[in-house]
Amino acid sequence: MVRGLLWLLAAILLGGIVHLSTVLAMPQAANQDAYSRLAPLTPVNTMAPLTATQAGGEIMPFMDPAFAAAVCRYDLSGGPLKLTAPVSQAYTSVTFYTRRSVAFYAVNDRAAGRRMIELDLMTAAQHAQVPEDEEVTAADRLIIESPTTMGLIVLRALAPEPSLMRMARQALGAATCRIQSQ
Q1: Do 25 and 53 fall within a single domain?
Q2: What are the b/e assignments for 48-61, b being 16+ CB within 10 Å?
Q3: CATH of the domain at 122
Q4: What pLDDT digit, counting tens, does each position of 144-171 carry?
Q5: What is the CB neighbour count within 10 angstroms for residue 114?
Q6: Which residue, of 51, 67, 117, 152, has the fewest CB within 10 Å?
């Protein structure tokens, strides 16, 4: 009886280890992650709208049809990136992801408190090279440190009614992300 319980406990423990290691290894083993899916469709360091699709034909899984979306595939090896995004009427959010789809920063229009979301994205090494200017405060210049040189910036604008989707897309169409000129 005790021997059978020990075997059962060992089997459950081994199953848990295999399950946990599989779940942790999946992001590195996946070859159709968000960055890979968007690479042929979007240029680097340029904002590109994600087109509306029919159910089952989405570019990215689980896209909400009530949101217009745009994406910027960034590469910081050429320098820091400047992101500007006008705020839509209902709700706008900006989310930053690493190359391996790990979200590391997000901001929405309510947190920004302005009609325009303006951010500087750079690596820690690039941030260390930024001169300390006493006249520029944190409220004037929001600097985001990226843990990797490559990744994604995803903008989403809510269209609370289908008739407002055009205005949400126009707001995202005016968004830019480009390497800062020195």
Answers
A1: no
A2: bebeeeeeeeeeee
A3: 2.60.40
A4: 999 999 999 999 999 989 888 899 899 8
A5: 10
A6: 51
